[in-house]
Every structure is written in C-alpha cells, then in structure tokens.
Write a structure and sequence with these properties.
The chain has 540 residues and is mainly alpha-helical. It has two domains: 233 residues, no CATH class; 290 residues, no CATH class. The chain is built from 21 helices and no strands. It is a multi-pass membrane protein.
C-alpha cells in the first residue's frame, strides 16, 4: 500500500468518524426541546443496555477483521480472509439475532433495577418498552461491522466512512421526525416517541448496511479477481482463525465497554440513592442532565483530543517493536502533550461557561450548569484512558486494560451510592471521576514499568499548559462578566449562544497566541501552523 493511499484512506476514515460523531452531538439540540428531561432519561434507560450488548457483539470487529484480512492478503492468501468473511457473516447473523432475543427477553428483568417506586415519571413498563424497541438494531449492526472490517482489510476505507455517515444521518432524521410527529402532530405519548427514537438505531443500521451492499456489488469483480491470485498454501481451521480474531478484538471490546458500564452503574443506583435522601421528585431530571445532556457536551473535547492523539499510536507501536527507544519516547511525549494541550483549556473553558453553554444547547437550568461545571474536568480522564489503553495495545500489554477498567468500575460501584447520598447528583460525577482516575494512573504505571518511560517532560509541559490555561481563564471570566452586563443576561438562548461564541473566541485566542509565542504549537504539531511564522516574518 503506497504512503499516499494509506494517508488518503486514513483521512477518509477519520473524516467519516468525525462527521458521524459531530452529527451524534448536534442532534441533541432539537431533540431536547421535543422530549425534555424525562424523555432524555427514558432514552438513556434503553440505550445504555443496548450499548453494552453492541460493544460485546461488535466492538473491535472492524479493526480485528481488517487486521486479519490485511495480514493474509499481504501473504497472498486471499482465500483465507474470504473464508473468514463468509463464515463470519453467518456467525454475526446468528449472534445478532441471539443478542436481540436476549436483550428483548431480559428487559422486564432490567427495568425494575432502574426505576424506584418513589420516583415520579417513567414507569417500569415504559423502560421495558424502550429497551425492547432498541434491541432490534442488534440484528443488523454485527453483520455491518464485519463487512466494514473486510473492506478495510482490503485497504478500502470509503465504504466504512460512507456507511457510518449514512447510518447516523438516517438514524437522526428518523429519530427527530418520529418524535416530532408523535408529540407535536399526533399528540401521542412520550413513551411512544422515545421508543421510536431508540428504534431509529435499527433504521439507521439498515441504511448503513444498504451502502455496504452497494459497495460490495460495485467491487465484487475486483474481489473475485483477487481470489484467482490466491497462493493456497495456508489452510488454518475456522477455530484457529476465530481464536486469532478474538485476540485482535478483545482489547477494543473492553475500551468500548468503559463508558456504557459506568452509565449502567448509574442507571441501576442513581434513582434509588436519590429517593433515599428525599429527592425522588427530581431524580429522573437530574439523571438525564448528568447522564445524557451534560455528558454529550463533556465528550466534545474528548473526541477532539483523542482524534489527534490516537493518530500517533501506530507510529509509537512501530518505534517500540523496532527497539527505537528515542523515537518511542519522542512520540509518546507528543501524544500525551497533545491530549493535555487540547483537553485542559477546553474543560476549564467549559466549566467557566457552564451556565450560558448549557442554556445555549438546551435551556437555562441551574442544575444543568452545576452538573456541567463539575463534570467537565472528567473529560481529561476520559481522553487519557482512551489514549493510555491504545498505548498498552501498542506495546502488547493490552491485558492490563481489562484490569484497569475493572479497578475503575469497582471504585465507581463502591462509591456511587454513598456519594450520591452525600452530594446528590454531583456524587455520581465524583464516583465516575475517581474510577477513571484510578484506571488512568494504573495504565500510566504499567506503561512506565514495561517501557521504562519517564513522565518528567510531560509533567513540565502539563504545568506550562495549566499556566497558559489560567491566563486564558482570566480573559474568559472578564469577558463573560462584561457580556452578561452588556446583554442584561437572564438565561435566554440567543444571548447564551452569543456569549459562548464571544468568550470562547477570546479564551481560545489568548491561549493560542501565548502557545504560539512560546513555540508550544510548533513543537506539538510541526509545520501545520508554519503560516503563522511566515506572517510574523513578513510583518517584521
């Protein structure tokens, strides 16, 4: 594969993933006024179990199949990858149907753990209905993941990118349209609307699968031609092939499970803990703010930082395997610095602008502001967990990811109810933060133990980033108070949007300018911002 084709394929796939994630963030803006806090909570009740099932069924499958097919194609054994693909289609179809049947069947068992009798709002029957509605997507998604991986193994990233975007678009269009029609046109029930909103995952998956089938028919002659070039010297059994595939996929399964498992703990404990301290009336509202609406905002800097940071992982892996310790340290330094450089100012800015930012995306809500302000710093840990887990995969110590995730979940489980009874909604955030903190520290320790990597340089750079962020914060706070005074701010959506844009621009401008003056940007991103240097020389 040529370097230019590799870069092109990587760019297409990255662009598809980013666009899909952006769509997944933006749709909540019209979704919130349609369904409100109660609808958001009900949506989460159905989606969290689905995410766990889908992670177990498909997390890592595209990358694992891609790695498997690519390996045997490089050996000229095209038939081996095709044999895995054909048997995999049958296996994924069976496991998809089985997963759907299991989730559909156990929905009445899950629901009572979610809803406390004292909680006012959604009922156990409502939760059962929504979980069952989303379960149908499990039939399609595993098969779709396998086909995506097969295309990627043949160095074709376009089908995956296109199917991801189409899947997300169709899902969002169906979700918003069905909720609008049920609630605003037919004046139907919220449960019906949310059931259709979760069923949208199945409709979107059909759209994504249709795109992949179209690509398959378009390229079937090329794939058939490759089979005629098969060397036919290797004949691994299906058992051996699946064993190899599971080894590739396992680390990605556990990383993909992290967020939904943390959310599942909240789903099973939050309402009951809130009811135990006399807050049953606002329990579901608080749950939806914490686990749905604020969480969508917190993930924004995580997505940005990990998209930059994870691009360096293949380079880190190559340097480690080849024994190039100098390059390994350099690339690892750069990865951690990029994550901290992007997430620290983003989460601090989000905490400062929590009030207008929550109002801009949803509605003015003092609880929403409080939750977002406390939840924002956790984004640093979310990003670091993803990156450190990827590094462990790169140095072939991925088994420790399972241990670190388990330790974090045990901390979350042991502290969650206690913290909620002491600090209400903020307690759930604190339990999540402590859990992820332990996981990240454990991962960093394992990286240091097996690579002898020292964090001294990264720590010094992180301190510099924190100093620059503090200076940025002063400018952002001053601008925030000035804007609130000028606009006579009272929580309106339009004023909130304007304030967020102005204050974010001022804060980002200060941070970017200081970073460029100190040479931090050029050291992290190379010549990507060389135009700034040229402009500076032209001025001088």
């Amino acid at each position: 594969m040529s370097a230019s084709k590799l870069l092109r394929g990587t760019f297409i796939l990255t662009a598809g993933v980013m666009l899909s994630r952006i769509l997944g963030l933006v749709y909540v803006i019209p979704f919130y006024p349609l369904v409100g806090e109660r609808g958001g909570a009900l949506y989460s009740y159905g989606y969290v179990p689905y995410q766990i099932f889908i992670s177990l069924a498909t997390a890592g499958v595209p990358l694992a199949v891609s790695k498997f097919v690519s390996k045997y194609n490089a050996l000229g054994e095209y038939g081996t990858g095709y044999r895995l693909f054909r048997s995999g289609l049958l296996l994924m179809t069976i496991t998809g149907i089985a997963a759907c049947a299991i989730l559909y069947t156990i929905a009445p068992w899950i629901a009572p753990f979610v809803i406390d009798k004292q909680v006012e709002g959604n009922s156990v029957a409502d939760v059962v209905t929504v979980i069952r509605a989303v379960s149908f997507a499990l039939i399609i998604v595993p098969v779709m993941s396998l086909i995506r991986g097969f295309f990627q193994g043949h160095e074709s990233m376009g089908p995956t990118a296109a199917s991801q975007v189409v899947e997300q678009l169709i899902r969002i269009i169906f979700l918003l349209a069905s909720c609008y029609i049920v609630l605003r046109v037919l004046h139907g029930s919220l449960v019906t609307a949310i059931s259709l909103a979760t069923f949208a995952a199945f409709i979107g998956a059909l759209g994504g699968l249709a795109i992949l089938i179209w690509y398959w028919w378009k390229r079937k002659e090329h794939l058939a031609e490759l089979l005629t070039q098969d060397r036919g010297q290797l004949h691994p059994s299906l058992k051996d092939m699946y064993k190899e595939l599971i080894m590739y996929a396992a680390p990605f399964v556990f990383v993909g499970l992290a967020t939904p498992l943390y959310q599942l703990i909240d789903q099973f404990t939050f309402n009951r803990a809130m009811a135990s301290i006399g807050l049953a009336k606002i329990s579901e509202e608080a749950y939806s703010i914490f686990n749905v609406w604020a969480q969508k905002l917190v993930i924004i800097p995580v997505t940005l930082a990990t998209s930059f940071g994870l691009t360096l992982i293949p380079t880190i892996t190559k340097a480690y395997i080849s024994g190039d310790r100098k390059s390994f340290r350099k690339y690892l330094n750069q990865t951690f610095q990029v994550v901290m450089f992007l997430t620290v100012p983003a989460v601090v800015g989000m905490a400062i602008l929590a009030e207008p930012m929550y109002a801009a995306f949803y509605n003015y809500d003092p609880l929403g502001e409080q939750v977002l302000r406390w939840y924002a710093p956790a984004a640093i840990l979310f990003a670091m967990f993803s990156v450190t887990a990827a590094v462990l995969q790169g140095i072939n110590q991925q088994r420790f990811t399972v241990i670190s995730l388990t330790l974090g979940l045990l901390v979350k489980l042991s502290l969650n109810t206690f913290f909620i009874t002491k600090f209400a909604t903020i307690g759930a955030i604190l339990a999540t933060t402590f859990g992820y903190f332990l996981s990240v520290v454990f991962n960093l320790f394992i990286i240091q133990k097996y690579t002898k990597y020292r964090y001294n340089f990264v720590i010094r750079r992180t301190i510099l980033v924190m100093i620059l962020t503090a200076i940025m914060s002063i400018g952002a706070v001053v601008m925030l108070h000035l804007c609130q005074w000028l606009f006579h701010y009272n929580g309106g959506k339009v004023e909130s949007v304007v304030i967020v844009i102005i204050c974010a621009a001022v804060g980002a401008g200060i941070y970017f300018l200081l970073s460029e003056r100190l040479g931090l940007i050029s050291s992290l991103f190379g010549n990507r911002f060389a135009f700034l240097q040229r402009k500076k020389k032209a001025v001088s």
